[in-house]
Batch of 2 targets.
Target 1
Amino acid sequence: MRRLLVHSVLTLLVSVHLVRSGDCPTYCKCDTTGTSGIHAKCSAFDDTQQFGLEIAYLDLSNIPKSSGLKLTDRIFSNVGLKRISSITLANSALKEIHVNAFHGLHNLNQLNLSRNHLGLLEPDMFANNTHLEKLSLSQNSLQNMQVKNSPYSEYFLNIPSLQDLDLSGCSLSHLLPTMFKKLTTVTYVNLASNNISDIPKETFAPLLDLGDLDLSDNKVSQLSSDMFENNSEINSLTMRNNPLSSLRSVQIESLQILDLSLCKFTTIDMDTFVGFPNMRDLNLSANAITSINSNAFKKMTKLQNLDLSNNKLIGPLSDDIFVKNVQLETLKLANNPQMKRFPETGFKEEFSEIYFLDASRCGLTHLEEDNLKRLDHLRRLYLSGNEIQYIKPGVLSPKIIFLDLSGNKIAHLDQVSFPSGSSLRTLYLSGNPIKKISPANFVNTARLKSLHLNSCELKQLWDTTETALRPLKFLSYLNIANNKIKSLSPKDLNYIEHVQTLVLSGNPLTCNDDMKKLVTLLTEREVASSDATQMKQFEEMKITGAVDLVSMKYELGWEKFMNYICQEKQRLIDITKPDYSGDKVVDPKSISDESEDKIILEPPSDHTEMVFDIEEIAFISTGIPEHALNYFPEDIHKDPVTHTKINYTWPIIIVILSAFSIILALLIFVALFLRWSRQKNSYRNRNARRLSICRTALYQQLYEDPNTPTTPVMMTKDPEHASEQRIYTSPNDDTNKTTTDTAQPISKVSYLSSPFHHSNIVPESV
Ligand SMILES: *[C@@H]1O[C@H](CO)[C@@H](O)[C@H](O)[C@H]1NC(C)=O
Ligand SMILES: *[C@@H]1O[C@H](CO)[C@@H](O)[C@H](O)[C@H]1NC(C)=O
Ligand SMILES: *[C@@H]1O[C@H](CO)[C@@H](O)[C@H](O)[C@H]1NC(C)=O
Ligand SMILES: *[C@@H]1O[C@H](CO)[C@@H](O)[C@H](O)[C@H]1NC(C)=O
Ligand SMILES: *[C@@H]1O[C@H](CO)[C@@H](O)[C@H](O)[C@H]1NC(C)=O
């Protein structure tokens, strides 16, 4: 009996396999594993092929020019792809398409024809593809379709259901006012990179549902004031990289997102944005703006995100410039080197939403007491690449969790006043001329988790002449690479007991007993020696969802590190991967001023983002309370490793237990099954026979009539697959009905005609 069962399973698998591979034509690979339909990728395509399967996705990309791909009359219908829902035909040197090529494809929903050599398209060629919603014609030279007096001048394409249209990179330097006349359902149009200089004001008028328009990388120097008056749904407009310098009298009531980066604005006037009362995200980055009228943003009371970075703003900005923008959340002012100062008494108004302020490279020399007043909810503050020497008390809000002060001129850390009870978790001080630090500098930042002191001028880790405080018990990352530290000893770890990554590379460390002891201790505590190892850890956390930090074994790198110090080999050791220049292990003597400068000018912002994201991801994805993951409760003074171990052993035990019980259940089931079948064999009563018919499909398959067709196997086998099929099903030639009308019968029909229907099953006892 058992052998029979095994045999039947094998036969079933083999036959299914044959059916599947048999129906995928030569030159094609069919992937049946997905749940959302069969995916076929072909390296050639012509009308001799036959697709016997219900293929939902067809990929004909990158077919070489030599194979001369041609889309002839009804080619897709003819090869059996009537039910196709998505075709990608990108980069295949396609020159022309027969007007009826896509005929009969009533389920076609997405069509990607990007990067071909198409020049002219018959405007009505998709008129009967009534479910086509996404069309990309990106990077085809379609300029001849937008010429006056051409046969195409009445309308561009006629697609009654289209929603997304990608016409980027199509050399469309002119648009005809009639272009979108027969595309009235479109909600997204991408016209980026087309060399468009002027747009007739009627062009977009037929697009009553237009929500999102991308005109980036064109030559548009002005927008006519009423060109969007009938697009009452438009939400997002991207004008990135156009020679646009004014929006005078342009009115787009519904607009929420406007990208004007890399345009040519030099001043922002009182009336520049009066026509945009619903603006939420405004990007003015990389213009040449020198001044902003203090009333410029007053109409935009819903503004949340404002990017003014990479301009030439001369500071200080007027202190009432944001008085009406009480919903402001992020403000980017980075790289306005002439800014120099914040308003003396801060920006007016209560900013209860602002949590992100980037004032990197703004030529700031210091921060006065009231400079950031009222920004009480600030959490991330970027001040890198300025010339800050000191930060007065009261400037920094205790809510700040991330502070980047790298590349400034801070020489004495006691000149930077952290508020007491500070929530600071990540602090960048890299590239400052700091000569010494003391645990006392961090008494107010007791929750600090990540501290970056690389490329400073430290001669020793702690200047411990001061009181023996233990303020950094949450610190898990410390980077003191590229300083001037000659010796370290286990005592230095007293202040950073729970450190998990300690980057020491690029220091002139001597090989002595203290150093050896320290490294032994670090190895014992499984402390990583570089960002590379830490990164690895992070990546695994991302993949595994931060379930088990402790069981992940990674190279700590201390052995190599000690070899390098002690054998004094003049070679580069790759103990740190080049995450960013600050951490490269180089012979300390060879560090030139240039490389230091580089570090200062390019703070490792990617890395900082990563640290933040990982924290958030870990917190969000596990649901483990932040403090359990990142901090070690104050009353536990044990090694953090043991602490986290306790945390993660339970899930493992649970997983093992459940796996065990599943196996147990299977064993019991098999035993019962065997017993039951033995019984049945001896009694052979009618009841048992009926039961056998109604049991599992696998079991029935064994007694299937060999003459019934096997094709519908997959439809009934895989319920998910069957339900997906429904979506793309509509009766042949009837285009008026909606898909939902016609959806239901398919799985029933196939079940009735399938070998699994009761009437098709030959009783087992025969
Ligand atoms: C179309 O295909 C190209 C190349 O495969 C791809 O880069 C692009 O994202 C696709 N476009 C859409 C809208 O799917
Ligand atoms: C669309 O289909 C109808 C009926 O099947 C046909 O009469 C018509 O010519 C087709 N339209 C186009 C543009 O091919
Ligand atoms: C872009 O348009 C301008 C005139 O509008 C024309 O002189 C120029 O050749 C066009 N460039 C390209 C790459 O088509
Ligand atoms: C908007 O619609 C009105 C009424 O249909 C029409 O008169 C006007 O010309 C349209 N605006 C544009 C820019 O086409
Ligand atoms: C603003 O635009 C620039 C350049 O296009 C881009 O790099 C930046 O990310 C944008 N800012 C925001 C906040 O999206």
Target 2
Amino acid sequence: FSGFAAMLTESQAEAIAKFPEVATVEPNTFHETHTTRSWDFLGLDHNQPAQQPGLLKKAKYGEDVIVGVIDTGIWPESRSFDDKGYGPVPARWKGKCETGEEFNATSCNKKIIGARWYGRGISAELLKGDYKSARDNNGHGTHVASTIAGGEVQGVSYGGLGMGMARGGAPRARLSIYKACWVGGSCSGAAVLAAVDDAIHDGVDVLSLSIGGAGPQFPGTLHAVQRGISVVFSGGNDGPVPQTVGNALPWVTTVAASTIDRSFPTLISLGNKEKLVVRTELSFLLEVCVHCFSFSVIC
Ligand SMILES: *[C@@H]1O[C@H](CO)[C@@H](O)[C@H](O)[C@H]1NC(C)=O
């Protein structure tokens, strides 16, 4: 097809849609977040001069911090979770690596030090379309885990855009995976509670939950915080109005985002010789895209 992406007002979109040559004008849709620059943008630069170490270096890149991630599981073969160069699993760790479909003891390593999954009480229909194990059939859990603690992977791009090193915020931290969300991103409250309970007993230092949608019903997280675990939530993507932040429980840290300092300009030449510069703003940071009113026009 021939077409382009553009920032249009509602009335511009309507006017363009009326041209007989235009097949369709579609409002933008949202997919998973993709970027290789968020952490540098936040000032957590990876390459810091020895005489001026920043927060990331002072924190030893997260060395020996154990982060529990409650989500759709993980794709353990992803290069972000390579355990080359890691020391032994911290001796205080009490978690375990549960095996299951396409996930055996070798799926855990010195980076993914724990994996559990919660299939009880999940409908047979949901289970059928997913791996009965901590393996991620959705992608969200793998995305979240690598955003938090993925190791350094060079030469990553999104279809050639944004070429660079992909890494997590704390690239040396260890991960413990709790799959409480099943295919389609549906997370049962009971499964989440069981996962929080296990994570507390396993000995995680940080718990991360990028889930929402059912209101702030995460009672187990209060107990985690009482045990000295930092609990971090995503702020959500659903509005209903700009600046809406979900999961605003008073005892947790809720992470939202606004923008990033990158854009990908593309020159478009129209048939009438008019040239337009179109900017694709990858305005994604962690979880939240702030209301991007862009449209794709298919001619
Ligand atoms: C399970 O373990 C074997 C080695 O015993 C390995 O070859 C295989 O790839 C593993 N399967 C998965 C899905 O991890």
